[in-house]
Every structure is written in C-alpha cells, then in structure tokens.
Fold:
Amino acid sequence: MDIYLPIAEVSVNWPLLVMLGALVGFVSGLFGIGGGFLMAPVLVFMGIPPTVAVASQASHVVASSTSGVIRYSGMKAVDYRIGGIMAVGGALGALAGVELFRYLRLLGQADLVVALSYLVFLGSIGSMMLYESLTQILHRVRGETPPRKERRRPMWLYGLPFRMRFPRSGLYISAIPPFGLGVFAGILSAIMGVGGGFILVPAMLYVLRMRASVVVGTSLFQIIITTAITTILQAGRNQTVDIVLSTILLLGGVIGAQFGARLSGRFRAEEMRAALGLIVLLVGIQMGLELFVRPSDLFLLAPGVGD
Structure:
C-alpha cells in the first residue's frame, strides 16, 4: 500500500496519509486553525524532509480551511471584511516569507529554522493558552467567581489611522492591526507551513477583541487565501511542493474539517482553548527535541544539504 513521492523521494503508506489528512482536518474545523502546525511534524516523523513537508501540506490547509469556512459561513460566523484585510497582509507576508525560505535553503539552514520556529512559537503560545484556560476551568470546578478582567481594547487601536467599521465583529478600529497580523501569518505560513491560526485566534480574541462567534470562521477565511498563495509561491520558487503528497492529504482533510466544524459548538470555550493549547505545546516540544536528540544517522547533522 506504499506510494512513491517524487519530490520527497521516499515511499509512504497512502491510506495512512489519508487518515492523517482526515484527523488534521477534523482538528482544523474544530478549533478554527489551518492544522499545518500539526501536520508538518507528523510528516517529518514519517521520514519526509522538513522543507517538502512544510511546503506540500499547505494545500491540505487550504482544503480543510475551505471546508470549514463553508460550514461557518452558513452559520453567519465569518467576517469577510476584516478577513479580507488580513488576507491582503497575508499575501504580502507570504511573498517575503517564501523568499526568506529560499535564502535559508541556499544556506542549508532551512530545517534548523523550521524546528526552532516550531519550538519558540508553539511552545510560548501553547503555554499561555493552556495556563489561561486551565485557570478558568479550575475556577469553574471550584465554584469560584473568576476575577473580572479589563475587557477594553488597547488604546493604541484607536490612535492609528485608516479606521474602519466591521459590524459583524463589533469593531471600529484601524485597519493596520489586522493587516499587520495578516503579514505575520503570511511569513509563518511560508516558514512553518502553517496557516497561523494558533496565533491569529488568540490575537483576534485578546488584542482586537472581536466577537468570539466570528473569530474561528474569519481565521479560516484568511488562512485559505494566505496558504493558497504560499503553496503557489513555494512550488514556483523553491520546487518543494510534492503534488502526490498534497493530493493524498487533502482527500481526507475536506471530510474531516466538516465533522470538526459540526462539533465545535458542543464544548465550552475554555475547554476548547485548553485542548488546543495542550496540542500546540506538545507539538512545539516534539519539534524542539529534534534539535537536541542525537540522530541515528550522523549525516543528518547537516540539514538542508542535498536539497
């Protein structure tokens, strides 16, 4: 049941890849994230080069995110206006990120940067999300009233120019912060092969103070555009997209995302954040361990050589 991947130059079990795509698609629809942060480490563990894993699974992110957006759009839970602004920033960030990725490959440091990025970003974001959500859960279990938090948006959001109204999100703020978030997500998409949802969702909730009901769908909408552009650029500039691998992954991703989106409303918000935070943290730690664990093949100490 193995199939040969021409760009990755390895053989893998294709039914396993389909199931992997479905599982990550389910997580994508459930939490409103692209799922790339989970897919790439698993592909690397299966023996696929990190540069190919990062670039090839982006198409799966697009497919699963599209499936999720269709579901959330039917529930009127997508703010297309603010999502469009973030997507424009994401496109520009993807352009810069792909060129940076190409430069790192030429230096032979792409694999190292990918692992470090996962360790730093996923480790920090996962830790903060897990701590914050577990604190709320403990207060609820003990029957305590959690301390009231200041819910006012940061004042600098109102001091910036180009203010716009976003009725569905309940915002009247400058377009610069969402645009900047999009740029950052685009760079991460190119370097880490992720949609950036694990950063965008908390930022949209705690910085922009968007309505929680539209955060997930809007995040997925932005991810579609950003990762689609990233995939095209990676294929054209770096030739690291394995079309066979991408096709197999997205077959399961579309179906899995639908089931995830249907179940997303059945859990408390703090429980969702705790589960997501734990997953993000564990994946970050796993990728980080690759930097310190002695490989079985010493030639692996020269990442990027032969790419």
Observations:
- Residues 5 and 160 are 49 Å apart (CA to CA).
- The chain is about 70% helix and 5% strand.
